[in-house]
């Protein structure tokens, strides 16, 4: 794991929240920004970057998707929070099984030096920030549960 302390004393919280597009300054708060494909083989599993802003602090957590996925990351992160709070029993233990059709027993052979990125990392890429109210999320949760149940039924077929 990498722990990074950075200074962004010329950046204000409103700078990152005032736009629907992700600004380059905000991207710089995440240690793995601009890591492409094969580069992940030489990176830490997790990086936490604390950036001191002019009027606050931003904590950017990034995970190496070469070796794990977002679900595992959130389980780890929530467990870390519970341990930090001193709970006696973890509410949800991590699941290390990889029961997925996407997992293959075959090893991909890559050329020496790694796979070459097939696109320009300088090409313009528009990333957006989506913001949802608590009320909107509460309305979406039941729909997500129904869709998950339907998907599980389909997978069982």
UniProtKB/TrEMBL annotation:
Mention any Pfam family matching this sequence.
Answer: Transferase
The answer to keyword Transferase applying to this record is: yes
Query: Which Gene Ontology MF annotations are present?
Result: transferase activity
Q: Keyword annotations for this protein?
A: Transferase
Source domain of life = Eukaryota
**What is this protein called in UniProt?**
HXXXD-type acyl-transferase family protein
Note whether Transferase occurs among the keywords: yes
